[in-house]
Amino acid sequence: MNLFDVYPLNNIEIVKAAGSTVWDADGQEYLDLYGGHAVISIGHTHPHYVKRLTDQLNKVGFYSNSVKIPLQVELAEKLGKVSGKVDYQLFLCNSGAEANENALKLASFYNGRKKIIAFKGAFHGRTSLAVAATDNPKIIAPVNETENVVFLPHNDEAALEAAFASFGNEVCAVIIEGIQGVGGIKEASVSFLQKIRSLCDQYDALYIADSVQCGYGRTGEFYAHDYAGVVADVYTMAKGMGNGFPVAGISIAPKFKPWHGMLGTTFGGNHLACAAALAVLEIMDQDQLMKNAAEIGTYLISELQKIEGVKEVRGRGLMIGIELPESLPNVKKDLLFKHHIFTGEAKPNVIRLLPALNLTKAQADQFLTHFKTALTGS
What we know:
alpha/beta
C-alpha cells in the first residue's frame, strides 16, 4: 500500500528535537520557527511534558468518556484560570476542524438558525461545515457546498452591518480568527471585533472566536481576540494545546446549557490528551510564556520592519507574517535549505513565523541574521 499523496514534502526526515531545534537523519541542525503549523507551543520534548505523558501512560493511556476522568476536570479548571474564563465550560475533542465543527453545531442548537457569517481569507478546517466556512473553493467538495455560509470582506464594518440589516434574524453565528493564519497573518481590527460582538448581541447570534492557530498564548494574550476587549460566546482551540499530542477543545459561555448526547467524541479528552494539555498549561504558567511571546514577538516585528526589501510585517506576539515582493520568491526555500531554518508560508509570498512561545532573543537574532542574508540570495 502507498501513502495517499496529498502533501508536497521537503526531502528532510526529522529524527530528534529539543526546544526550538530539530535535527535530520544526516545530523543537520535546524532552527524551528514554525513548530509544525503552530503546534509546538512549549518547545520540542520539554522534560516536564515528557514526564507528564510517560507517567500517565504507565497508569492508563485511554478509556472512553463513559467513565469519570478526573484529569478532564483538572484540565478545565487550569484552562479556566490561565485563560481568564473561569465560568466557561470545556468540551474536549481532537483537532481544530472538530473544534470549529462542534462550535458551529452548538451555536445552531442554541438559536435554531442555520446561516453562518465567515470572512474572505478565512480558514476554519477541512471537515464538513468547517470547510464550508473556509474561503478556499478548491478544497470544498460538492458534498460540502451549502448556501448557509456567507463570506464577507475582512475588516469591513459597513458590509457586516449591511448583512445583519438584510438577514440578521437568520444569522446563527459569526466565526472569525483573531488573526488569519493561512490567510496571510491578517489581524482583525479592534473595532471590527467589537462590531461583531455588538451585532451578535443585537440579533441573538453567536460570536465564535476561532483561536485554533492564533490562540493559546501565541499573541501574548491567551486568545488573540482578547486584545479587542470583547468576550466571545465560544472559543475554539487546538494546535498549541497539546504541543504535538492531538487534543482540541471549545470553551463555552455559561449561557449554553448542555444535555446528554448533545456533543460527543470517542478519543476527545482521553487520559494522555489531558496529561499533555495540562503539561502545556503548567509550563506556560510557571515560565510566563505569554509574556515571553509578547516581548520576543514585539522585538522581532520591530527589527523586521527595519529591513530593506520587506513589503510589510504583520501580526502580534509570535504569530508573524513577513510579506515579500514577487521578485523574492525563493526566500522560504533558501531559509530552509541554505540556512537551515524552518518557517511557514502563505500565498502569494508571505513568510509565516509560528515558533514555540519560549523562543529566546538569541534565537530571534539568529533568524534575523540569516533572513537578511537570504534576502540577498546568499
